[in-house]
Amino acid sequence: GSRSSKTFKPKKNIPEGSHQYELLKHAEATLGSGNLRQAVMLPEGEDLNEWIAVNTVDFFNQINMLYGTITEFCTETSCPVMSAGPRYEYHWADGTNIKKPIKCSAPKYIDYLMTWVQDQLDDETLFPSKIGVPFPKNFMSVAKTILKRLFRVYAHIYHQHFDSVMRLQEEAHLNTSFKHFIFFVQEFNLIDRRELAPLQELIEKLGSKDR
């Protein structure tokens, strides 16, 4: 229906030929080696903000695709609240349009979230795509908020829709994407441990396989 196409945000592209594009290619090449711990490390001589920016865009695109595969199962009826298991419920606020957190269905929440992230990524003052344009002083806190919120989409998919993911035979794809995401946020300490609690067991399991 129309809702799933609306929820499915357009892919955010990194301009070809730009330095960020080179960084993305580097990230893809190291990912191919299969060593995710190594793949998330800051490449030598690179700017940390730029590395975080490129990867944040990449995770946004990945989560978009993963959520896009299950939108028909994530409906107002099946998911009247945005949750990650019975103990975690999320209410939406973006601080500008919606200041007081509102309770809404998972598809509505994820639509708000992805639209909000897209707006941040498209903002040249926050995510400059031109070489030599400096990142703003608050860049790190913006990136942390984006990643914290993107984590909630993974948490919702794992807790509420994993059976659908398995039926679609997407679990390997989801696990790899999530593992990459977790190793990345752990490497640079981008998400508070408390925020990761809904998937703590899974995070430990994914991490122990790589020790």
UniProtKB/TrEMBL annotation:
Keywords: Kinase, Metal-binding, Transferase, Zinc. Zn(2+) binds at residues 74, 79, 156, 161. The keyword Zinc applies. It comes from Phalacrocorax carbo (Great cormorant). Pfam families: Mob1_phocein. This is MOB kinase activator 1A. It comes from the Eukaryota. GO terms for molecular function: kinase activity. PANTHER family: MPS ONE BINDER KINASE ACTIVATOR-LIKE MOB. The keyword Transmembrane does not apply.
